[in-house]
Amino acid sequence: MATVGTLLGGFMLATSAQAATNLALGRTTAVSSTETSSLGGANAVDGSTSTRWASAEGSDPQWIRVDLGSVQQIGQVTLRWEAAYGKAYRIEVSPTRAPGPPSTRPPPETAASTTSPA
Fold first, then answer.
1. Which of 29, 62, 75, 91 could form a disulfide with 55 if both were Cys (CB 3.0 to 4.6 A apart)?
2. Is the Cβ–Cβ distance between 43 and 10 less than 8 Å?
3. Are 29 and 41 in contact (CB under 8 A)?
4. Which residues contact 89 (CB under 8 A, 6 or more apart)?
5. What are phi and psi of 86, to 5 degrees?
6. Per-residue three-class SS string for 12-25
7. pLDDT, one tens digit for every residue, the chain (118 residues)
Protein backbone atom coordinates (compact mmCIF):
# COMPACT_ATOMS: atom_id res chain seq x y z
CA MET A 1 0.00 0.00 0.00
CA ALA A 2 1.16 3.51 -0.63
CA THR A 3 0.22 6.36 1.61
CA VAL A 4 -0.17 9.88 0.39
CA GLY A 5 -0.84 13.08 2.27
CA THR A 6 0.04 16.72 2.33
CA LEU A 7 2.62 16.47 5.07
CA LEU A 8 5.38 18.78 6.18
CA GLY A 9 6.95 16.62 8.85
CA GLY A 10 7.79 12.99 9.44
CA PHE A 11 5.24 10.27 9.85
CA MET A 12 4.89 6.71 10.97
CA LEU A 13 2.58 3.97 9.76
CA ALA A 14 1.94 1.22 12.27
CA THR A 15 0.04 -2.05 12.21
CA SER A 16 -2.62 -2.53 14.86
CA ALA A 17 -0.92 -5.69 16.18
CA GLN A 18 2.49 -4.00 16.38
CA ALA A 19 1.71 -0.42 17.39
CA ALA A 20 5.39 0.57 17.54
CA THR A 21 6.38 -0.80 14.11
CA ASN A 22 7.21 2.01 11.72
CA LEU A 23 6.23 0.62 8.30
CA ALA A 24 7.40 3.80 6.55
CA LEU A 25 10.91 3.81 8.06
CA GLY A 26 13.48 4.09 5.28
CA ARG A 27 10.95 3.41 2.52
CA THR A 28 11.01 5.04 -0.92
CA THR A 29 9.22 8.37 -1.21
CA ALA A 30 8.01 10.61 -4.02
CA VAL A 31 7.01 14.23 -3.35
CA SER A 32 5.29 17.03 -5.22
CA SER A 33 8.15 19.45 -4.48
CA THR A 34 10.90 20.30 -2.02
CA GLU A 35 11.82 23.63 -0.50
CA THR A 36 15.54 22.81 -0.77
CA SER A 37 17.57 19.72 -1.68
CA SER A 38 18.34 19.12 2.01
CA LEU A 39 14.60 18.89 2.86
CA GLY A 40 13.68 16.00 0.56
CA GLY A 41 11.01 13.34 1.00
CA ALA A 42 13.42 10.78 2.46
CA ASN A 43 13.59 12.96 5.58
CA ALA A 44 9.92 12.21 6.29
CA VAL A 45 10.67 8.50 6.71
CA ASP A 46 14.16 8.53 8.25
CA GLY A 47 12.91 8.10 11.83
CA SER A 48 14.59 11.28 13.05
CA THR A 49 12.68 14.10 14.74
CA SER A 50 15.44 16.55 13.76
CA THR A 51 14.90 16.20 9.99
CA ARG A 52 11.84 16.88 7.87
CA TRP A 53 10.44 17.08 4.37
CA ALA A 54 9.48 20.61 3.35
CA SER A 55 7.49 21.35 0.23
CA ALA A 56 8.00 24.46 -1.88
CA GLU A 57 6.29 27.50 -0.39
CA GLY A 58 3.25 29.05 -2.03
CA SER A 59 2.28 26.11 -4.24
CA ASP A 60 -0.67 24.04 -3.03
CA PRO A 61 -1.69 21.32 -2.81
CA GLN A 62 1.47 19.42 -1.94
CA TRP A 63 1.78 15.66 -1.49
CA ILE A 64 4.10 12.87 -0.43
CA ARG A 65 3.86 9.21 -1.43
CA VAL A 66 5.50 6.40 0.55
CA ASP A 67 5.97 3.01 -1.08
CA LEU A 68 5.72 0.39 1.65
CA GLY A 69 7.08 -2.28 -0.71
CA SER A 70 4.18 -4.69 -0.24
CA VAL A 71 0.56 -4.68 0.87
CA GLN A 72 0.43 -3.87 4.59
CA GLN A 73 -2.36 -3.58 7.12
CA ILE A 74 -2.28 -0.05 8.52
CA GLY A 75 -3.81 0.45 11.94
CA GLN A 76 -2.45 3.88 12.81
CA VAL A 77 -0.81 6.87 11.14
CA THR A 78 1.24 9.29 13.23
CA LEU A 79 2.10 12.70 11.78
CA ARG A 80 4.83 14.83 13.31
CA TRP A 81 4.34 18.42 12.19
CA GLU A 82 6.74 21.32 12.41
CA ALA A 83 5.66 24.90 13.17
CA ALA A 84 4.63 25.60 9.54
CA TYR A 85 2.21 22.69 9.20
CA GLY A 86 -0.41 22.13 6.52
CA LYS A 87 -3.92 23.42 7.11
CA ALA A 88 -5.51 20.11 6.12
CA TYR A 89 -4.46 16.69 4.91
CA ARG A 90 -5.86 13.55 3.35
CA ILE A 91 -4.46 10.02 3.59
CA GLU A 92 -5.02 7.68 0.68
CA VAL A 93 -3.99 4.04 0.42
CA SER A 94 -3.69 1.88 -2.66
CA PRO A 95 -2.46 -1.67 -3.33
CA THR A 96 -0.80 -0.42 -6.56
CA ARG A 97 2.09 1.90 -7.25
CA ALA A 98 0.33 4.30 -9.58
CA PRO A 99 2.64 7.04 -10.90
CA GLY A 100 1.92 10.72 -10.52
CA PRO A 101 0.22 12.79 -7.82
CA PRO A 102 -2.48 11.49 -5.49
CA SER A 103 -6.14 11.67 -6.29
CA THR A 104 -7.66 15.09 -6.89
CA ARG A 105 -11.22 13.97 -6.25
CA PRO A 106 -12.92 14.51 -2.86
CA PRO A 107 -11.88 11.94 -0.26
CA PRO A 108 -14.06 8.80 -0.05
CA GLU A 109 -15.74 7.97 3.21
CA THR A 110 -12.97 5.47 4.06
CA ALA A 111 -10.16 8.02 3.71
CA ALA A 112 -8.84 9.90 6.73
CA SER A 113 -9.27 13.61 6.16
CA THR A 114 -8.93 16.25 8.81
CA THR A 115 -7.87 19.75 9.66
CA SER A 116 -4.52 20.27 11.37
CA PRO A 117 -4.31 21.55 14.94
CA ALA A 118 -4.53 25.31 15.38
1. 62
2. yes
3. yes
4. 5, 6, 7, 79, 113, 114, 116
5. -70, 155
6. EEECCCCCCCCCCC
7. 333 333 334 555 555 455 568 889 999 999 989 999 999 999 999 999 889 999 898 878 888 889 888 888 888 888 888 887 777 888 888 877 666 666 655 544 444 444 445 4
